[in-house]
């Protein structure tokens, strides 16, 4: 895969960025959009390597072996600043946010010349989790970025960001890869064929997430636990659902991850109700999904999916998580 910046998939994006570097047509800001684990951060780092490699194999083609390439790969390069969501103690957190102080800290150094490279780059991870003040501060940085500066943003969807920020970025919308490609990659990494196929489906065509699944068995175990809990909750009494809601709401990040797993399950049910030929994500739960699909009508299946999507959105807006969990569980179909 050396001809594709050592990346799996997204060839069109690599080709475009390689041309920008080789022709000196680099934009001052790029937005890498797509689902977590799809490769947006890796692609952004490869781009920084292509811009700053000490010994490029060809124009726009980094060597990946020089000191600069290795430092960029580890996000420990003097001319690369990484900004990611943090908690109230300024510690990186999956449930945190990007704050205005982080943008102001970056602004203090961003206009200085690079230490040792042609470009000074700033990588903003999960910028859809920036608060309003940070977003407005970044807009000012985008408007006044010096010629030697490159700003790289990652986000789930461009629509989650301020339109004025999006309009100043070159947008790369990264799509899931074919499941066969992800499965083949896992088999190359030593995963048994049937398991590789399962993990490819669970990942939804996201190679980064699929690789995480083979490296961290706890992620799969937790998924299994959450899906088992869902099966137990379907016939449960109101008292049992209230008790589970209380437990679920005590950890906002864990609650978010639980709802995401359940959402993928109900989307599979909706696909089967609708008679779609799209591959299931949760293929190991096929019999359960087929049963529920035969029991629900299209309107009911859509409503369940919509409820879960709405719960995730409201959780991000810090709505009362206990009340949110209770409402979600009480609206589940009684199987």
How is this structure best described in words?
The protein has 335 residues and is of the alpha/beta class. It has helices spanning 11-22, 40-52, 67-73, 100-110, 132-143, 163-166, 179-188, 193-203, 207-215, 217-233, 238-248, 252-274, 286-295, 298-316, 321-330; strands at 29-33, 80-83, 120-124, 149-155, 170-173. The protein has a 5-stranded parallel sheet, sandwiched between helices. Strand 2, helix 4 (100-110) and strand 3 (120-124) form a beta-alpha-beta unit. The chain is globular, with a radius of gyration of 22 Å. The termini are far apart. The mean pLDDT is 93.
Instruction: Output the CATH topology of the largest domain.
Output: Rossmann fold
Query: Regarding CATH, which class of the largest domain?
Result: Alpha Beta
In the CATH hierarchy, what is the architecture of the largest domain at level 2?
A: 3-Layer(aba) Sandwich
Rounded to the nearest angstrom, the radius of gyration is 22 Å
Sheet/helix structural class: alpha/beta
Task: Give the SSE layout.
Blueprint: H1 11-22, E1 29-33, H2 40-52, H3 67-73, E2 80-83, H4 100-110, E3 120-124, H5 132-143, E4 149-155, H6 163-166, E5 170-173, H7 179-188, H8 193-203, H9 207-215, H10 217-233, H11 238-248, H12 252-274, H13 286-295, H14 298-316, H15 321-330
Parallel strand pairs: 1-4, 1-5, 2-3, 3-4
Helix pairs in contact: 1-2, 2-3, 4-5, 7-8, 8-9, 9-10, 10-12, 11-15, 12-13, 12-14, 14-15
Please give a handful of descriptors for the protein shown.
Rossmann fold, 3 domains, alpha/beta, about 325 residues, 5 strands, about 5% strand, 15 helices, globular, five-stranded parallel beta sheet
């Amino acid at each position: 895969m050396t001809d594709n910046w050592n990346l799996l998939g997204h060839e069109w994006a690599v080709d475009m960025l390689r041309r920008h570097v080789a022709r000196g047509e680099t934009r001052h800001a790029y937005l890498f959009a797509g689902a977590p684990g799809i490769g947006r951060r890796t692609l952004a780092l490869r781009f920084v390597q292509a811009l700053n490699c000490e010994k490029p194999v060809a124009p726009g083609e980094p060597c990946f072996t020089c000191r600069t390439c290795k430092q960029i790969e580890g996000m420990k390069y003097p001319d690369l600043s990484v900004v990611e969501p943090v908690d109230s103690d300024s510690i990186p957190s999956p449930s945190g946010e990007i704050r205005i102080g982080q943008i102001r800290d970056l602004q203090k150094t961003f206009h200085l010349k690079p230490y040792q490279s042609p470009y000074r780059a700033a990588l903003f991870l999960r910028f859809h989790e920036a608060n309003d003040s940070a977003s407005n501060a970044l807009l000012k940085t985008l408007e006044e970025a010096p010629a030697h500066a490159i700003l790289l943003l990652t986000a789930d969807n461009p629509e989650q960001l301020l339109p004025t920020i999006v309009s100043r970025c070159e947008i790369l919308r990264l799509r899931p890869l074919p499941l066969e490609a992800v499965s083949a990659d896992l088999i190359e990494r030593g995963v048994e064929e049937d398991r590789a196929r399962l993990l490819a489906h669970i990942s939804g065509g996201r190679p980064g997430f699929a690789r995480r699944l083979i490296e961290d068995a706890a992620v799969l175990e937790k998924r299994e636990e959450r899906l088992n809990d869902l099966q137990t909750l379907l016939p449960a009494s109101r008292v049992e659902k209230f008790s589970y809601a209380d437990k679920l709401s005590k950890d906002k990040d864990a609650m978010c991850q639980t709802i995401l797993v359940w959402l993928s399950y109900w989307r599979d049910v909706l696909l089967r109700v609708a008679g779609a030929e799209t591959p299931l994500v949760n293929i190991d739960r096929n019999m359960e999904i087929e049963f529920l699909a035969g029991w629900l009508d299209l309107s009911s299946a859509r409503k369940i999916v919509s409820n879960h999507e709405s719960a995730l959105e409201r959780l991000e807006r810090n709505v009362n998580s206990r009340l949110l969990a209770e409402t979600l569980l009480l609206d589940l179909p009684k199987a």
